[in-house]
Design goal:
This protein has about 200 residues and is mainly beta. It has one domain: Electron Transport, Fmn-binding Protein, Chain A (Pnp Oxidase, Chain A). The protein has helices at about 15-20, 65-75, 85-90, 100-105, 170-175, and strands spanning about 25-30, 40-45, 45-50, 55-60, 75-80, 110, 120, 125-140, 145-160, 165, 170, 180, 185. It has a seven-stranded antiparallel β-sheet, with helices on one face. A two-stranded antiparallel ribbon has the order 6-7. Strand 12 and strand 13 form a beta hairpin.
């Protein structure tokens, strides 16, 4: 089958786009409002986008609370979602009024960042503390503004639970991440496959 996205006439019960672009890591974004309220929300439009310096990005469909807080304060955190935290992550995605504390709603412990003024999930095995470098509304092919907004952040500090460090590595088998797989589906990554990059004779 083929369909053009302008009409989106795929004839399926659910839009397959998010299932095709999968699995995706989940950015569990922690922010604080100007009024001091805490916010926690998972974003599956999230990924690392740079290494020197370390950069991450999350994208909000609509002007949601995480976007508002990150714009206003210039900081956010992202907490690693392990399988053991799947239900809490899901609970924190509930549509609730601005100012609702999703940490409390999901039964999680909020910790203050060391280098940014934003909370993170104390139960997470890894956390990135970030400063906003850019917030942009994504344009479509005609240059018109859409209702998708990308927040880019430079990673200023990283927390790692010693229990998931093995043989000098952040051990993903121990960290047991949960990924978004489209629709209502989530997935783990076990078993892991280790595959070295091939070397071609005469090339670096």
């Amino acid at each position: 089958m083929f369909y053009d996205t302008a009409s989106n006439a795929h004839g399926m019960a659910h839009d397959p786009f998010k299932a095709i672009v999968a699995p995706r890591p989940i950015g569990w974004i922690g922010t604080k409002g100007r009024d001091g309220s805490q916010n926690l929300s998972p974003y599956s439009f999230f990924n690392a986008v740079g290494d020197h310096p370390k950069m991450v990005m999350f994208s909000s469909s609509g002007r949601k609370d995480s976007l508002r807080n990150a714009e206003e304060t210039g900081v956010f955190t992202t907490s690693f979602v392990s399988r053991s935290l799947l239900m809490q992550m899901s609970q924190s995605s509930a549509a609730v009024p601005y100012g609702t504390d999703e940490f409390a709603l999901a039964g999680l412990t909020a910790m203050d960042g060391r280098v940014v003024d934003a909370p993170y999930v104390a139960e997470a095995v890894a956390v990135l503390e970030c400063r906003v470098t850019m917030v942009t509304t994504l344009p479509d092919i005609e240059g018109a503004a859409t209702d998708s907004h990308a927040v880019f952040g430079q990673v200023m500090g990283i927390h790692i639970d010693e229990r998931v460090i093995s043989n000098g590595r952040f051990d993903l088998a121990l960290a047991d991440p949960i990924l978004r797989a489209g629709y209502m589906d989530y997935a783990g990554i076990s078993p892991l496959i280790e595959l070295a990059r091939p070397r071609v004779s005469g090339r670096g």
